[in-house]
Amino acid sequence: MKKQFLGLAAIVIAVSASAFTTSHKYSTYFYRYTSSSHAQTDIQNISNYVRQDLTCGDGANVCGVYLATDKPTGQQPVTSEFNSEQSALWVSQQNGSPSDANIDMKE
């Protein structure tokens, strides 16, 4: 009985601790937004995003997006991965804050 309780307690602690960690939905492959425009067509245009290692600070404008595929620096993201975040990028820009954990913002 004591072993079962300790096992259950360990599981509860592990699950509780994981609830307080923050991680990106995909991974740490960051694609920076390169345009200075805040227009919807530009925010949602894959041509305005390139792979970079540097992320951004806090702010109210879209800075970039984290995606699953690691492409060489300067390359555009995988289209299907980017398309799954297009709407969230625009919502983030409109709200001035990330709409999901994959989006980074800047001043």
TrEMBL record:
Residues 74-107 are annotated as: Disordered. Keywords: Signal. This is Uncharacterized protein. The lineage of its organism: Bacteria, Pseudomonadati, Bacteroidota, Sphingobacteriia, Sphingobacteriales. Residues 1-19 form the signal peptide. It comes from the Bacteria. Residues 74-100 have a biased composition (Polar residues).
